[in-house]
Amino acid sequence: MTWLDAIAHIEELEDAALEPGLVAAFERFAADVAARPIRFSTPTFKEYTSSEIKGCNKNSFPAFSITAGACALMCDHCQAKILEPMIPATNPEMLEAKVRDLILLQDLQGFLLSGGSNRRNEIKYERYYPVIERLKRDFPHL
Ligand code: SF4
After folding, report:
1. 9-61 confidence digits (pLDDT tens)
2. How does DSSP classify residue 76?
């Protein structure tokens, strides 16, 4: 059975507009990546535990906001509330210093780099690229 045939039997996906060529391409390449581990991250600023999974150390995968708590869009459903628990990193040097400290002191394993949007629904990460590149070079496990 092809993946498209299998998907056709999943009721929840009956209205999904899938691109058959793309699904077939995913299926063709699946064997190459099947053995690769999949890592999921969940927001570490949310506390949770279930019978199958529990949260890890709060600072092992923190979220940084390059705009601190500021957002120019202020969507109705959020009003920038999602940014409140994030660690401010309003310049690249601040991000680098905080990440290096957390690696040393709190076993940081990775991080989410986020922030509020400008009026065009963009987050301008470009000036952070050199720091991200340096951190990844120095700490490839991140
Ligand atoms: S753009 Fe993002 S952070 Fe800003 S209010 Fe909307 S959802 Fe929240």
Report:
1. 999 998 989 999 999 999 999 999 888 888 777 666 667 778 877 776 667 88
2. T
Q: What is the pLDDT of residues 104-114, one digit of tens each?
A: 998 898 999 99
pTM metric for this prediction: 0.72
Q: What are all long-range contacts of 129-133, with beta carbons under 8 Å and residues at least 24 apart? A: 130/92, 131/92, 131/93, 131/95, 131/96
Q: How far, in Å, CA of 123 to CA of 82, rounded?
A: 15
The preferred substitution site among 66, 79, 117, 121 for testing ligand 1, maximizing ligand atoms within 8 Å of CB, is 117
Q: What are phi and psi of 64, to 5 degrees?
A: -110, 145
The angle, 0 to 180 degrees and rounded to 10, between the axes of the packed helices 129-138 and 92-106 is 20
Which ligand 1 atom minimizes the distance to the CA of 81?
A: 8
